[in-house]
Amino acid sequence: MYRFLTTLLFFALALPAHAWNAAGHRLVAVIAWQQLSPPVREAINIALARHPDHGRWLASARSSDAGDLFAEAATWPDDIRNDPRFYDEDHEPPTPALPGFADTARHKRWHYVDLDVTGKVQSGELDQQIERLAKLLKTSRNTEQISYALPWLLHLVGDIHQPLHVGRHGDEGGNQVEIENPFNKRLPFSSLHLYWDDLPGPPWLRGRRLDDVASHLLARYPAPEQGSVSLWRKESHDLLPATYPGKQGSLLPIISEDFHRASRDMANRRLVEAGYRLGRLLNGIFGNTMSHGTP
Ligand SMILES: [Zn+2]
Fold it and tell me: What's the 1 CA to ligand 1 centre distance in angstroms?
C-alpha cells in the first residue's frame, strides 16, 4: 500500500501544474467577452484570425464563433508547453523561428511572480509582462506582433488572479507542496498547485456548458473595481495564506470539507474578477482606435 501511495505521489508531483486549467482560462475569457463592445470584438476577432495557430483553435473549439475562438486563444500559452515547435529557454537550445511568432520560447517565467514575505519580487515576470503586453497592444501597428501578444494577455490576466501564481518563494507556487484530497477520486494525492488549478471545473469544458457556468458565476459574484496590475498582484498575494490547508491527514495536509468549500468560492470569485478586468482592459486598448490592427 505504501509503495502504491508513493507511486501515486510520484506521478502527481511529476506533472508540474501551470495555471488555472483550460476551463479556468476559458471562463475568464467568456466573462471578458461579454464586457467587450462590438467594435472591440471585431478588432480582436481580426487579430486572432491572423494568429498562426488560429486553425488549431477552430479545430479544438469545433466552432467558428468569435467568442469560442477567443476562449481557445486564452489557453494558447499553456498549449505550447508540450509543443515541440517551442523550447524552454532555461535548458534547451532555441527551436527554429516560425512565421507569425515573435519568438519560439515558452516563456514559463511569464506565468508567475514569486514574492518574499516583505512583498519583494524574487522571480517571475507575470505582472511586468501584463503591463508590457497591454502597452504593446495599445501602441503597436504591427499586425504580427498584435496577434502574438493578444493570447498572452488573455492568459496572463487569468493567471495573476490565481493566488498561487503570486506564490510563496521556495515552494514553486505550491507545486512542491503535497496534499491529500478526498474530494477527487481520480487524483486523491496531488500538489497543492494542481488542486487549485482544477477548481474551475473539468478542462474539457467548452461551448454551451461553459457559457452556463459563466452565467452562474456572473449571477453570484459582483463586478470588482478595475484597479491596477499591482492591485491584482497584491490581492492574490494577500489571499495566498488561505490557499494552504491547515488540517493534517495521516500522511499529508488534507483538504477538509470547509477548506474545499472556501477554496471553490475563492477560485470562482477570482475567475469573475479576472474576466471583468480583462474585458475592461481590452475595451481600453482596442476601443479608441477603430482601425487598430488593420494594415
Ligand atoms: Zn499560465
Answer: 35
Residue-wise pLDDT tens digits, 121-173: 889 999 999 999 999 999 999 999 999 999 999 999 999 999 999 988 778 88
Expressed in angstroms and rounded, the spacing between residue 179 Cα and the centre of ligand 1 is: 21
Any domain includes 256: no
Q: What is the CATH number of the domain that holds 197?
A: 1.10.575.10
- Asked, for residue 23, whether it belongs to a domain, the answer is yes
Could you tell me which of 231, 115, 103, 238 has the C-alpha nearest to residue 173? 115
Bridge partners for 254 per DSSP: 180
Ligand 1 centre to CA of 159 (Å) is 5
Q: Tell me if the pTM is above 0.85.
A: yes
What is the Å distance from ligand 1's center to 17 Cα? 9
Domain interval for residue 73:
2-250+262-286
**163: its cell numbers:** 493566488
**Alpha carbon distance 188, 172 (integer Å):** 21
Name 124's Cβ contacts closer than 8 Å, sequence gap at least 6. 109, 110, 111, 112, 113, 114
How far is 107 from 122, CA to CA, in rounded Å? 17
Domain count, the chain: 1
How many angstroms is it from 96 CA to the middle of ligand 1?
A: 23
Helix axes 126-139, 229-239, angle to 10 degrees: 160
- At 127, the amino acid letter reads D
Contact call for residues 269 and 145 (beta carbons, < 8 A)? no
DSSP-H helix ranges across 140-191: 143-160
